[in-house]
Design brief:
By secondary structure, the chain is of the alpha/beta class. The protein has one domain: 3-Layer(aba) Sandwich (Aminopeptidase). It is 39% helix and 23% strand. Strands 1, 2, 3, 4, 7, 8 and 9 form a 7-stranded mixed sheet that branches. It has a two-stranded antiparallel ribbon with strand order 5-6. It is globular and about 45 Å long. The two termini are 16 Å apart.
Length: 205
Amino acid sequence: MRVLLTAFEPYDTWEQNSSWEALVTYLHDRGITQGVTTRRYPVDLPKLQTRLEKDLELGFDAILHLGQAPGISRVQLEAIALNVAGMTEAAGDFFGPLVADGPVAYRTQFPLDDWNIHLRSAGIPCSVSFHAGTYLCNAVMYLSHRWHEIRRRKCSIGFLHLPLTPEQVLHSRRDFPSMPREQSAEAIGSILDLIHESEHHNSIA
């Protein structure tokens, strides 16, 4: 089974991105996992789209995108990606569609309710979120679905929003909730295990 696992680089005033910090911690804890390809994407829509499409050409059975969300206190499992092209907060006055002729939204095929129960039972704060926002986190999820739909390729695609790390909050003048990168990394590993278990079950069913 081949899985694409992605995160984002730092952006705006943030010197780190909790999604990348969690991914790096996951790799440190578990090592390179066979069949898992990791990427760090730029926070720039045209560059992101170019990099994403190049990676999708490699062919994956499942995709798990990660992103940080300042202000949340738990892992958020995103259910829906919207056809909205929000820009950065500094220039956030443009909200056209990501794809002019694309559908309004895509829904993940992953069993988010099951994931939510699993993570919470493991002591990881978690919830299911209705949609991934209107920024690049949403874009990468939407564009991944769109790419596979056009080519009629089967692939399960999901997105996790992660809280800031304590280190990020330490150097911020605002009062943000946080989650240790180790706990976010544990969430990533648990979900990847569930993805592999599901694929194994489907292959022998």
